[in-house]
Amino acid sequence: MPDLKDLESFVPRLSPQELVRYSRHLTLPEFGEEGQRRLKAGRVLIVGAGGLGSPAALYLAAAGVGTIGLVDFDRVDETNLQRQILYSTLDVGRPKLSVAADRLRAINPDVDLVLHDEPFAAENGLRFVEPFDVVIDGTDNFGTRYLVNDACVLSGTPNVYGSVFRFEGQAAVFATAGGPCYRCLHPEPPPPGLIANCAEAGVLGVLPGIVGTIQATEAIKLITGIGEPLIGRLWLYDALRMRMREITLPRDPACPVCGDAPAIRKLVAYDQQCRDASPDAADVARAGAERGEGAPASERAKRGAGGPADQTMTVEELRRWRREKKPHLLLDVREPSEHAVNRIEGALLLPLRQLPTRLGTLPKDQPVVVHCKSGGRSAIAVAILKVAGYDAHNLSGGIQAWESTHDQS
Length: 409
Known about the structure:
Blueprint: H1 7-10, H2 16-21, H3 23-26, H4 32-41, E1 43-47, H5 53-63, E2 67-71, H6 96-107, E3 112-116, H7 125-129, E4 134-137, H8 142-155, E5 159-165, E6 168-174, H9 182-185, H10 198-201, H11 207-224, E7 233-238, E8 243-248, H12 270-276, H13 281-290, E9 312-313, H14 315-323, E10 329-332, H15 336-341, E11 348-349, E12 368-371, H16 376-387, E13 392-395, H17 398-404
Parallel strand pairs: 1-2, 1-4, 2-3, 4-5, 9-13, 10-11, 10-12, 12-13
Antiparallel strand pairs: 5-6, 6-7, 7-8
Helix pairs in contact: 5-6, 5-11, 13-16
């Protein structure tokens, strides 16, 4: 964070144009010219230029943060437009960073942009984070979220966390001196596929705007030194009921990365660990029952298979069963909104979150073939069904594999 006593040495005073531009900041007694000069000297890295990163980047540029870094390697998709306000219909297909840079420079040409058009990974995470004063976590998957957290702890850089899921959001400030980190809240990633992502469960379009703006606010507070940041506090927001609450989140002395005897001393790539994870079926079943209410903002790795070989079934095998009229139950564990868009004829819809409490409604006198979008959630469902005594099989690749090999005529 820029030190006030050092401002004179590396940040010139505000120009007459800047005094006018930021006049609404300057009139705030808690902020004033000193606060604006701290912003001018400040450097904020935003990991993910999506639903959370869009409003955060826009407001930080408008506020006058001197340097903004962006990490994203995606292209604008039409499904982004409902919530990712950096982009317009004309931008579909363009690289997000290219669009974001044009938009942010149009808002404030004095802001320096540092663009990283590549994934945030174990090999580059510390290199990305270390030049910055604050990191805003706008990620949408667990693997990158843990990498961002660990990089912030290892480099001593505050991590402004945010996440969204359906109608609920969260925010906190992690990785500050004496404060908790994300692993104090969630020590390890959940089993892959356990929690649906936004594409599968949906998200209210304005919700990332609210949470992303909170993240921008916390970043500004950290840089300027005003107010009370969300350190040791987890902010929770329920948009449907318009309720906000916060819970105390102390640092965990046993935390594997920020605790008294940390076991993690370098960045570890969690995408491969998540992909290869094969949790005990009983543990998965308990997790499905206990955590069926869902949790904010996760993204499964988009992969086909899940579970041991004897629990998987290819789309060719399922088609053979259907041609031969072999008795079986085809179970779709996606959400109703997904089922309404595309479905396999004859499939019974039973969302994964409801499965643990509705096992008794499924017959046990025939095999159960389970599918979801790409195979993650269905692997969890198969584990739950196996524990309950069902002959269950996971459709490898899910409905994506089915449609990719299906004769559309």
